[in-house]
Backbone:
């Protein structure tokens, strides 16, 4: 049994040790005796193409026309190289080594070359000791007989490669375009192209090399315009801007998930921690859509709270001590329901508690709650905005 050298380049010590163990376990299954060595010239290379050393070894093997096997992960697509997939199995390693590097065919010794002898007229004398065969004698004397070495072509590709066109979409699901189908041109890259650009090492150069075709009719080009408009928080709560749950975490503010379908929101912050969302306009582009899995995760992390709390906050911060125009300053006010505000706004909570007692004028509400008039007006306006307020005008203003 001939001895052959194998070397593994670009691997970790653990993986190299496992391959050495598999090689020892193979034993008599191999047609040649293999041993690992990094000092002798290898007959076969095992390389890891994901490492820099493995890629360099692959290029050198290609130039030297030396056989090599790539050790790749299970999910890597098939390529033109012979490959073993992790975790490497014993049977696969034996089959690959026996196929790629079969044992050498021993040649006949040069002292006993093959001779073709013409029988001629001495055919019946060949089995006699004193038979004289001039043709054979001359052939042995001249040493003209030469052994003919025959080689057999083995189609290794058919054993280890699949047809790359066998699993295409066209082969699996035949389809054809309708007669009225139109192809729309766009300067923007498609989602698939963008994904390839992001995975490429030269993505910066590829993104710059997306020129529009001047020969395309401009009327057929789709203009991709980003929405850079901004809206107050109240428009996101009550308007049609959000059709489903979306998340925003903008400019260092706490995370905020708005769910208009369930009419709730999720956030790790208290109501007072969301004031900056209520005091400024929010860019529409800063909101991101959520998958069902993401929304479920946020629901588990942060308990749902009604959107009415955010509406209350927006009106409370924007009131400025000015009573709403449709409310009578001399009338009486009471709450049908109230929000839990003790931790976020203690003064507003005291005013809410007083207003739950019954119809009271503004000055009595402020006095009983030990709060200022402007604070009482702000709370009244905020509860009026969410429909929790009952208001009774003075008698002379009633119709």
Residues:
């Amino acid at each position: 049994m001939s001895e052959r050298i194998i070397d593994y380049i670009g691997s970790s010590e653990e993986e190299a040790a496992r391959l050495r163990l598999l090689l020892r376990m193979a034993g008599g299954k191999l047609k040649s005796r293999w041993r690992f060595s990094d000092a002798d010239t290898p007959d076969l290379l095992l390389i890891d193409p994901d490492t820099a050393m493995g890629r360099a070894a692959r290029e050198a093997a290609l130039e030297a026309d030396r056989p090599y096997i790539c050790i790749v992960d299970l999910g890597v697509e098939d390529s033109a190289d012979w490959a073993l997939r992790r975790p490497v199995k014993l049977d696969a390693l034996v089959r690959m080594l026996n196929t790629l590097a079969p044992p050498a065919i021993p040649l006949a010794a040069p002292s006993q070359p093959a001779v073709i002898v013409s029988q001629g007229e001495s055919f019946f004398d060949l089995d006699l000791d004193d038979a004289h065969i001039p043709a054979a004698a001359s052939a042995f004397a001249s040493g003209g007989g030469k052994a003919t070495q025959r080689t057999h072509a083995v189609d290794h590709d058919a054993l280890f490669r699949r047809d790359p066109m066998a699993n295409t979409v066209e082969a699996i699901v035949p389809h054809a375009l309708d007669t009225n189908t139109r192809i729309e041109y766009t300067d923007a890259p498609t989602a698939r192209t963008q994904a390839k650009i992001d995975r490429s090492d030269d993505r910066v150069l590829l993104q710059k090399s997306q020129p529009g075709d001047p020969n395309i009719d401009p009327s057929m080009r789709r203009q991709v315009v980003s929405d850079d408009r901004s809206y107050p928080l109240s428009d996101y709560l009550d308007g049609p801007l959000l059709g489903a749950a979306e998340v925003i975490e903008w400019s260092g503010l706490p995370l905020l998930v708005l769910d208009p379908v369930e009419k709730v929101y999720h956030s790790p912050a208290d109501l007072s921690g969301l004031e900056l969302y209520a005091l400024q306009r929010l860019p529409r582009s800063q909101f991101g859509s959520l998958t069902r899995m993401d929304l479920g995760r946020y629901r588990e992390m942060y308990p749902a709270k009604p959107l009415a709390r955010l509406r209350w906050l927006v009106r409370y911060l924007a009131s400025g001590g000015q009573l709403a125009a449709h409310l009578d300053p001399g009338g009486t006010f009471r709450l049908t329901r109230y929000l839990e505000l003790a931790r976020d706004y203690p003064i507003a909570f005291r005013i809410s508690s007083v207003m739950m007692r019954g119809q009271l004028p503004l000055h009595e509400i402020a006095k009983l709650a030990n709060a200022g008039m402007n604070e009482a007006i702000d709370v009244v306006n905020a509860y009026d905005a969410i429909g929790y307020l009952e208001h009774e005008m003075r008698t002379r203003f009633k119709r």
